[in-house]
Amino acid sequence: MGGVSEYDQYDGLGLAELVRKGEVRPVELVEEAIRRIETLNPRLNAVIHKMYDQARQAAEGPLPEGPFRGVPFLLKDLLATCRDAPMHMGSRFYRNYVPDHDSEIVRRYRSAGLVIVGKTNVPEFGLLPVTEPELFGPSNNPWDLTRTTGGSSGGSAAAVAARMVPLAHGNDGGGSIRIPASCCGLFGLKPSRGRNPMGPDLAEAWQGMAGDHVLTRSVRDSAAMLDATAGPDVGAPYHAPPPARPFLSEVGADPGRLRIAFTSRPFLPSVVHEDCIRGVEITARLCQELGHEVVEAAPQIDGKAFATAFFMMVCAETRADIEEAEVLLRRKATFADFEPATWAVGLLGRQITAAELSRAIRFLKLTARQVGRFFEEYDVLLTPTLARPPVKHGELQPAGVQALGMKLLGRLNAGGLIKAVAGIEALAQQVFEFIPFTPLFNATGQPAMSVPLIWNAEGLPIGMQFVARYGDEATLFRLAAQLEQAQPWRDRVPPICRQ
Predict the structure, then answer these.
(1) d(CA 306, CA 444)
(2) How many CB atoms lie within 10 A of CB 216?
């Protein structure tokens, strides 16, 4: 390998194979990852906490004989705790908080042989589909530094796309793996609900709509990582049905002739950019050329009602997160501790009644039943991942009178006024305009993936989302590997890596 000069030519499994053969030592891979972070991070702002000393010590071994032995890895700074490393959740309120234990998912990452070299940037509490926290500043997209990486796993996506590490941790509660995968030209799978562990600190996140996995450059890395982490942990309230065989075995397996539905019409209120519409049309033709039956069709849902119900759930969960943080950190939260938008969402959560929340959750679950019936007829659904290409920094942030009003009402703790003046329904429509395709499948719990198949005339990646039946990641991995072979993306490298 010429030392580590060809580091970025390998995916995670490829680097681990070099370690197994004795062609490179884990500490050499870690040093190369550190070199790349130090070189590129000043322009990308992807990594917000460096764990170099711990990584070097771990790399010197002994390391577990897992599938990713010796491979450098980055951990998203949200939900999953890492012992002796600060956890900020993108928030000033969490300053100085250092967990004393690993989450189960992190324990499984270590058991797979991964070496954690740092933690990545996130929006506060993972609420926004862009990574622009006040605490650390925005993460910049390797394809265009003026544009978003997406969110909430935006720092992880930027780091993987820029070849700092071959794969990185993410989690997805409304699209937060798939959104940055689309923005940064990566493969990003949201597994089925209950596939990966959430313990010991969480039974479930966001009413079971959020879960952990990784962002990768190759399909096989995602499959092998899911093999390493999947399965219930102690006390799990539910778990996904076990696969028939390892997910890695599905990569390269014949998917058969799938019945694929496609649509570019948004599930939630939005206007879809022509680049995203064109991407679906090109991808549908590619699937047809690969021998699949392709039909224009989509599940019919009440998009406005869904957006309102999902947003109400997020508001309530955010309020609960703030109040639980007060207990954990032993201090009272104030407006000054949070970004205005986060505080406003928390205030709205305080105004939602128990009955309103219960009705919202019931509606989301009934919508999942409705969507499930659609998948009795189709194996896979194809949509754009996002309604637009990666947007410029700041485009999705509250501005002008809206931002001023949010700050004023937030300082007054006037959640009731926010609810009365702005209206939850109206706010919900704004929240999902950029992401009208992804949250539905957090509610259904189905596996969904963003595949980097399209780049527009500006050289920006446009991800394509594929969704399968609950528990059927196998079909997605088989299809993704077929697409990866037919229209490979491995040689597409962001400009920042060529400078």
Answers:
(1) 12
(2) 25
- Between CA 444 and CA 52 the distance in angstroms is 39
Hey, what domains does the chain have and what are their CATH numbers? 7-253+472-497 (3.90.1300.10), 303-374+397-431 (no CATH)
199-256 pLDDT tens trace: 999 999 999 999 999 999 999 999 999 999 999 999 999 999 999 999 999 999 999 9
Query: What one-letter code names the amino acid at 257?
Result: R
> Who's near 30: CB < 8 A, 6+ residues apart?
55, 56, 59, 70, 72, 115, 117
* pLDDT at site 387: 98
Residue 490: which of 187, 202, 234, 212 has the closest Cα? 187
Q: Are 444 and 315 in contact (CB under 8 A)?
A: no
Confidence of residue 5 (pLDDT cuts 50, 70, 90): confident
Query: pTM for the complete prediction?
Result: 0.96
**Closest by CA position to 353, among listed 412, 430, 419:** 419
Structural contact between residues 390 and 183, judged by C-beta atoms closer than 8 angstroms: yes
CA atoms 244, 247, 250, 256: torsion sign: positive
Q: What is the pLDDT of residues 327-336, one digit of tens each?
A: 999 999 999 9
Distance CA 270, CA 256 (A): 34
In this prediction, residue 405 carries a pLDDT of 54
Q: What mean pLDDT do residues 83-109 have?
A: 97
Q: Catalytic residue numbers?
A: 76, 152, 176
pLDDT digits (tens, 9 = 90+) for 157-187: 999 999 999 999 999 999 999 999 999 999 9
Helix/strand/coil (H/E/C) assignment for every residue in the chain: CCCCCCHHHCCHHHHHHHHHHCCCCHHHHHHHHHHHHHHHHHHHCCEEEECHHHHHHHHCCCCCCCCCCCCEEEEECCCCCCCCCCCCCCCHHHCCCCCCCCCHHHHHHHHCCCEEEEEECCCHHHCCCCCCCCCCCCCCECCECCECCCCCCHHHHHHHHCCCCCEEEEEECCCCCHHHHHHHCCEEEECCCCCCCCCCCCCCECCCCEEEEEEECCHHHHHHHHHHHCCCCCCCCCCCCCCCCCHHHHCCCCCCCCEEEECCCCCCCCCCCHHHHHHHHHHHHHHHHCCCEEEECCCCCCHHHHHHHHHHHHHHHHHHHHHHHHHHHCCCCCHHHCCHHHHHHHHHHHHCCHHHHHHHHHHHHHHHHHHHHHCCCCCEEEEECCCCCCCECCCCCCCHHHHHHHHHHHHCCCHHHHHHHCCHHHHHHHHCCCCCCCCHHHHHCCCEEEEEEEECCCCCEEEEEEEECCCCHHHHHHHHHHHHHHCCCCCCCCHHHCC
From 242, 232, 231, 241, select the one nearest 203 (Cα to Cα).
232
